[in-house]
Amino acid sequence: MKSISKIFIATCILATFSLATQAQDKKKEQPKAKTEKKMKLKDHVCTQTCHDSGKHVYAHGEKGHTCTDACKK
Question: Would you say the pTM of this structure is higher than 0.85?
Fold first, then answer.
C-alpha cells in the first residue's frame, strides 16, 4: 500500500510540473503589416535613383514600398 501511495504522489508531482510549464504565457508578436497600414502612405515621387536604375525605387512610406531588412536599419 505504501508503494502505491508513493507512485500516486510522484505522478501528481510530475503532472503539476508539466501543467506549470504549459501555463506560462507566450508573447504574441504583432504582425508588422498591420502597423504599416496605419501609416498614411504618400504618392511615389521619382528620384535620381529611379532614373539611374531604369525602374521605380520606392522609399519607405511611399505607395508600392515593401519593407525589407535594409529598410529597417
Answer: no
* pLDDT 10s digits, 42-67: 888 888 888 888 888 888 888 888 88
Number of domains in the chain: 1
Within-domain flag for 67:
yes
**Closest alpha carbon to 14 in 24, 6, 4:** 6
Q: What is the CA radius of gyration of the chain?
A: 28
* Torsions phi, psi for 62 (to 5 deg): -95, 150
Q: Look at the alpha carbons of 65, 68, 33, 61 in this order and tell me if their dihedral is positive or negative.
A: negative
Count of CA atoms in the C-beta half-sphere (13 A) of 9: 6
What are the grid coordinates assigned to 40, written together?
498614411
